[in-house]
Amino acid sequence: MAEHAITPRVARRLEAVQRLLIDGQWQLAGDGRSEDIFNPSSGEIITTAATATEEDANRAVAAARASFNDHRWTGLTPAQRAKVLWRVADLIGAHAEEMAELEMLDAGKFYLGALNGEVPFAAECFRYYAGWCTKIEGTTKQLSTVPGQAFHIYTQREPIGVAALIIPWNGPLVQAAWKIAPALAAGCSVVIKPASQTPLSITRLGELMIEAGVPDGVINIISGGGSTIGRLLAEHPDVGKVSFTGSTEVGKQIIDAAKGNLKKVTLELGGKSPVIVFDDADLEGAIAGAAEAIFSSAGQVCVAGSRLYVQDSVYDEVISGVAEIAKNMKVGPATNSAMDMGPLISRQHLQDVYRMVEAGLAEGAKLAAGGKLITDGGGYFIEPTVLADTTHRMSVVSDEIFGPVLVAMPFSRQEQVVALANDSEFGLAASIWTRDISKAHLTADAVRAGLVWINCHGIPDMAVPFGGYRQSGWGRENGYESLLQYTELKSVIARL
């Protein structure tokens, strides 16, 4: 297929500096600073984005706090707020082609994949939480230890206040929706910090939210570095909640910065998710699933199935099958839908991933496929890579690579593979491939991970809570559970 041509509307957008949104006004940074935004498919500068100063960030938090204090959003009825969120979803759908192009340009997403997958999924996120606006309820209680007196006791959920939402670069539109929609459904006002590399779709989303009727100050968008603006938001005394998605290392820094006022923190962090293939699995499906689990989005997915454990009697067959898929994948720009895998996000990240591959080979891993940089075209590409016969003593097995690099090893017994799967500081996700339903559920029960798939991998749904054990984070995205994390629970005891 031909390369996807940028539409005139998007081309005009790229000619201007991407602005900050503070208290309903789009504006440049206070000192005029801006940062180049690169297309990872070509390595070319495509636009610039305003880089917020600390004063800009403080004004954004003040605007969010003022909008919360004067009830611009919570003063609407739950049904009115639901209609606004539903309107946001409709506007995302109406501008789907534009949103898909923006995801393609700065995040390296395939246009058709974004158009048919991530953009409608983001819209459905707003619809899902629109439904929850009218269903945030408390309960009635009875005292269990005070005899001979009458009381009326109830609980109620209240919005925390100002929520700082820090968005990663590997799925900017969807991950922004995952945070914004429940925060607004709960009644919070928000300050959103996109990743410096990928502001385009979130800036456009902000425009659509204003058009949908979100009041001034309820949504604010500021770009800037994590070590400056991200830290300021995490430290700010007027921020009551931080929701962060990113690396475990930075997550720990968020915790440290947030301790000043003991603000609530939700963290969706790193992963090193195991894919477990038993010898009774549908091997054709398991091989294809294992390849998709690691090579989708060039492995830049927190739930990527980056550790493959295969029962020894079918190990060679499965490794050979996955390696064959890797060798035949077409790698190229996200503008070309004929490609099977797109770019990594930046030149620095590309070099980091390549160094990890070299380290694995130096430690004794066997190269079954890939392993080389692709230097044609100026973009940030590496071959889909399979490292076989690895061990848990190797850094490529213990460390999150966040690229299209699969490490594989055999196992003999169910108990052994459970121990191997749990031998990690992470616990985000896992998948299990077997035809034995008892084995599947017993293994799922034993694996320490927040999300386990059986005979599939990476299936998302707004109703399913998503988050990790151990150093993969705190709290959950999606589902009613995510909504609750933007609320405080109040108990009221009235003596009658």
Describe the structure.
The chain is built from 16 helices and 24 strands. The chain has 496 residues and is α/β, with parallel strands linked by helices. The protein has 2 domains: 8-269 and 473-492, Aldehyde Dehydrogenase, Chain A, domain 1, CATH 3.40.605; 274-461, Aldehyde Dehydrogenase, Chain A, domain 2, CATH 3.40.309.10. The strands form 7 sheets. The protein has a 7-stranded mixed sheet, sandwiched between helices. Strand 3 and strand 4 form a beta hairpin. The protein is globular. The protein starts with 7 loop residues before the first helix and ends with a strand. The model has no long low-confidence stretch (mean pLDDT 95).
How is the quaternary structure best described?
Answer: single chain
- Counting structural domains, the number is 2
Rounded mean pLDDT is 95
Low-confidence stretches: none
What's the N-to-C terminus distance? Answer: 74 Å
Topology at a glance:
Blueprint: H1 8-15, E1 20-22, E2 25-27, E3 34-39, E4 44-50, H2 54-69, H3 78-94, H4 96-107, H5 111-132, E5 140-141, E6 151-159, E7 162-166, H6 172-186, E8 189-193, H7 200-212, E9 219-221, H8 226-235, E10 241-245, H9 248-258, E11 264-268, E12 274-277, H10 283-295, E13 307-311, H11 315-328, H12 347-362, E14 366-369, E15 373-374, E16 381-382, E17 385-388, H13 395-398, E18 405-411, H14 414-422, E19 426-427, E20 429-433, H15 437-446, E21 451-454, E22 469-470, E23 473-474, H16 479-484, E24 487-495
Parallel strand pairs: 7-8, 7-10, 8-9, 10-11, 12-13, 12-20, 13-18, 17-18, 20-21
Antiparallel strand pairs: 1-2, 3-4, 5-6, 6-24, 11-23, 14-17, 15-16, 19-22
